[in-house]
Amino acid sequence: MMLLVACRRRLADEHPKIASFGDLGDAVFRGPGRLAVDTMLVLSQASFCVGYLIFISNTMAHLYPVFAPSSNALLSPKALFIWAMLPFQLGLNSIKTLTLLAPLSIFADVVDLGAMGVVLGEDVSVWLAKPPPVFAFGGLSAILYGIGVSVYAFEGIGMVLPLEAEAANKKKFGTTLGLSMGFIAVMYGLFGAMGYIAFGDATRDIITTNLGTGWLSAAVQLGLCINLFFTMPVMMHPVYEVAERLLHGKRYCWWLRWLLVLAVGLSAMYVPNFTDFLALVGSSVCVLLGFVLPASFHLKVFGAEMSWPGVLSDVLLVLLGLSLAVFGTYTSLLQIFHSSSA
Prior knowledge:
By secondary structure, the chain is an all-alpha fold. It is built from twelve helices and no strands. It has a single domain, classed as Amino acid/polyamine transporter I, CATH 1.20.1740.10.
């Protein structure tokens, strides 16, 4: 993330209007750079929001089984909850700037922290009551699959430059970002590890469904749903930036945003498996966006003045990203095909 910020700051005099990941790609590698970034950014950010809607709708269908099962993907319980959310999402996604969305994002994060804290407490109590058998590793394919899900979790790469551009104190941006990502890494690591330690092989794709019934479980699941519901407009912002630049002369366009929200909602109705979807997106576009492109940009912008350890670190980051993308995508596709044939 900070490699992107460093590149933007270095190129600020020559390219003063770098406001997004795509703008940086254009400044560094011209048209091909922008095309690569825009394509992967739209795919990844829209996929994050597809994952949000899947989580919310599956959780709500689990909590409130009021709709009869249907073989029609557009009329299944999951789909009906998505249809119910769409009018509200259309309104939220019509908000023009990230600054106006900040209060919603802060509220969502506070709710999320509370819900995650309760889940961790429940995990500890379940583990103390009856520890299940657990295994550290399930083979290389399982590790690569897990890396794909993990990379998906760090979904903010497309938001770094827009956020830095709107930061009140840009000198403190790197420190704030580092502390935030460190805290998130600890929380996500604990959340994943404690869920598996508490439930073992019985751990479900959406961990909150392991908590059983009761008001506490329902409150936690609703809290996580509220978090994702209000986070979706923020994560769709890079998609709107690309779409409005290409199709509406960089001008705000509410109907284009509505069409994109509808497209994301319809996609969520047809995606069958939450975790497999996360792993595939994380292993493919997220790895390229998070590792390969930032290191490539940094190498191109700073390569002539860096010492060999700096050049080597960028090259190793590119090679690591490409390796994870190839093998992670392969194992994720195998898992998807295995699940569909089971």
